[in-house]
Write a structure and sequence with these properties.
Strand content: under 5%
Strand order of the largest sheet: 1-2
Order of helices and strands: HHHHHHHEEHHHHHHHHHH
Oligomer: single chain
Shape: globular
Length: 436
């Protein structure tokens, strides 16, 4: 395949982006001078113009910055959303958005799921909430599809995954330290009265799972360095930091996610030709990291709280009640109640991606979601069987991460988790790499 068109586009994109940014800036100056908008709106427009110009002039750098900031989701849209959305827009404008890199069946299911969202909007009680929620879902789909087309070289994969892992490790370290050391701003990273690590997420139940794919990647790197080329001691240290972040998030769903992911990853490794050495090394490393995590829990006096969190909680009955409400809503509304409407019909959130989609897009929506998630699982399994990695990210890692997320999704609504769509994109990259 000739790379000349891409090269010319890459050379022209900084000039085009800067020109577009300058033109947009000139228009903004005229508009602001004639019809002064509120200060916040004016600032947002100027910032948007600057981000688009940056994405065009420094395309790869913008994407890397977006993934470093993937763990900053205190407000929405998050900072990473602004950077990655601008990069995706530049990709479309420069003709770099090649849908042929997507698995066709998966793409069709995503389009159908979005169509069902649009159909269900007609039943929404709060149209504004429905449109906002649909816009976020649309963004997640576009983000995943665009990433699949962008991550087509080992260099790009190393840059993007490295940025994600570095950001995850940094936030994990800061969040764990925030529980025990009152450094300036520590209260921003520790939730529920400084008892649970949550990073710059709104909920520890999202922060813990966010760290798990990064931990699996570093587990593989510690055993078989091929993506980052880090010293084993560095990989193990970063892995330990991530595991501590997962433990101290005190999320039972995250713990389930981690256990499922590691077990699946080990099972895949055990079936390979060099199973003996790899499996033994993985088990030894996991035991070492688990010992470090256990020692940290004991030394910090957190064993009692850990035991308390591991038990059934009083609000679990409310969660299961909300899921029953979701089933009832689906029985009464065959096409669903509309995107983002569950909280308007129930005092408690769905706490399950399956229940949310069932209630909001009806039984057909749930069927499409299950086919999409299951189809991606099949692709991940096929990658693992054939040993087809995603430009350095192992198939065992991605299959484990996806299985963990599917288990997690039964107890937490993961539809708008950026790292869920990120892992999905990595699986699609591996699945279509053989055809490129």
């Amino acid at each position: 395949m000739s790379t000349a068109p891409v090269t010319r586009a890459a050379r022209l994109s900084p000039i085009a982006g800067l020109a577009a940014g300058a033109a947009l800036g000139a228009v903004l100056v005229v508009v602001v001078a004639t019809h002064p908008p509120p200060l916040a709106l004016a600032a947002a427009l100027v910032a948007a113009a600057g981000i688009v110009a940056l994405a065009a002039a420094r395309y790869d750098l913008t994407i890397a910055a977006g993934f470093v900031l993937l763990g900053v989701v205190r407000v929405e849209p998050a900072p990473s959303d602004a950077l990655l959305a601008a990069a995706a827009a530049v990709a479309v404008a420069a003709g770099r958005f090649d849908l042929r890199r997507m698995p066709g069946t998966i793409l069709g299911l995503l389009v159908l799921l979005l169509a069902l969202n649009l159909v269900s909007i007609t039943a929404a009680a709060e149209l504004g909430d429905a449109l906002r929620f649909f816009a976020i879902t649309l963004y997640m789909v576009v983000l995943a599809v665009w990433l699949t087309t962008y991550l087509n070289t080992r260099e790009r994969m190393r840059r993007v995954v490295g940025a994600y892992v570095a950001g995850a490790a940094a936030f994990a370290l800061l969040a764990v330290l925030a529980l025990f050391f009152p450094y300036p701003g520590h209260d921003l990273l520790a939730g529920e009265n400084a008892s649970r690590a949550q990073g710059l997420f709104k909920d520890p139940n999202v922060f813990g799972p966010f760290l798990i794919p990064a931990a699996l990647i570093l587990l593989e790197e510690s055993l078989r360095p091929r993506l980052f080329g880090l010293r084993r001691a560095v990989s193990v240290a970063l892995l330990a930091v991530l595991v501590l972040g997962i433990v101290f998030a005190y999320s039972r769903a995250a713990w389930l996610n981690l256990v499922v992911a590691v077990c699946v990853m080990l099972a895949v490794m055990a079936l390979r030709a060099d199973a003996g050495r790899s499996a033994a090394g993985a088990l030894a490393l996991i035991a070492t990291v688990a010992a470090v995590g256990g020692a940290a829990v004991v030394l910090t006096g957190s064993a009692g709280f850990l035991q308390e969190r591991a038990q059934v909680q009083s609000y679990d009955t409310q969660r299961f009640s909300a899921q029953r409400t979701g089933v009832q809503l689906a029985e009464d509304h065959s096409l669903g109640i509309g995107p983002g409407q569950f909280e308007n019909a129930s005092p408690v959130s769905a706490h399950s991606i399956y229940v949310r989609v069932l209630a909001e897009q009806g039984p057909l929506g749930l069927a499409v979601l299950v086919m999409f998630l299951g189809g991606t699982l099949v692709l991940a399994g096929a990658n693992a069987v054939s040993g087809r990695d995603a430009y350095g990210v192992g198939a065992a890692v991605l299959l484990g991460a996806w299985c963990g997320l599917l288990a997690n999704s039964a107890f937490v609504d993961t539809l708008h988790w950026r790292h869920l769509w990120f892992v999905a994109a990595l699986i699609w990259v591996g699945a279509t790499r053989v055809r490129r």
